């Protein structure tokens, strides 16, 4: 049902460009439609008010016997990521077909491409986050998905000592999206995390003296 709402929202964007009266120099076509601010909505039984990115209230559009909803507001309400591909004039909803490595634009301490530090179990991952400092310590970094993706597939390995406390957090409101442990015996552990609508992620682990945290940035990715 939720995906059907999203599809309807996407249709709102696409179908509103199908009528007579083409504007000069564009592929847009002019139509006559009406805003209907009186219409109310509920999502999973709870009142919902469509808004734009700046928080302004949006009214649905009534056209030719159908009601069209703002796709970005609806996708946010239903927890489905949305992105607009301006180059191809395409609205992208949900998971992407191709994963985007978190290595793209990654910054922070313990980020390395040193060939002596980027290998794990015989495989060179080329670009990693590797906290191999000494002492009991926290190990963390921030990612910036900017609300463009539905899922994060994050790979993490504990080396030397088990990681007893690990979490991924929405940095906007400190809500925990994943809480777990990572044992050395598990090898490279993959976490699948729903990050729809999340702008910033805080990844954190407690690492004991003699232990290390290894995160391959090339095989951890957004979708």
Description:
- By secondary structure, this protein is mainly beta.
- The protein folds into two domains: 2-93, no CATH class; 100-222, Galactose-binding domain-like (Jelly Rolls, Sandwich).
- The chain is 9% helix and 39% strand.
- The strands form six sheets. Strands 8, 9, 12, 14, 17, 19 and 20 form a seven-stranded antiparallel sheet that branches.
- The longest helix has 14 residues, at 2-15.
- It is elongated, with a radius of gyration of 22 Å.
By CATH, the topology of the largest domain is Jelly Rolls
Number of helices: 2
Uncertain runs are 1-24
Quaternary arrangement of the chains shown?
A: single chain
The CATH class assignment of the largest domain is Mainly Beta
Overall mean pLDDT stands at 83
Order of helices and strands: HEEEEEHEEEEEEEEEEEEEEE
Number of domains: 2
Protein name: Copper amine oxidase-like N-terminal domain-containing protein
Pfam families: Cu_amine_oxidN1 (PF07833)
Keywords: Signal
SSE topology sketch:
Elements: H1 2-15, E1 34-35, E2 41-43, E3 46-48, E4 61-63, E5 66-68, H2 71-77, E6 82-85, E7 90-93, E8 100-101, E9 111-112, E10 119-120, E11 123-124, E12 128-131, E13 137-143, E14 151-159, E15 163-170, E16 175-182, E17 189-194, E18 201-207, E19 212-216, E20 221-222
Antiparallel strand pairs: 1-4, 2-3, 4-5, 6-7, 8-20, 9-12, 10-11, 12-19, 13-18, 14-17, 14-19, 14-20, 15-16, 15-18
Helix pairs in contact: 1-2
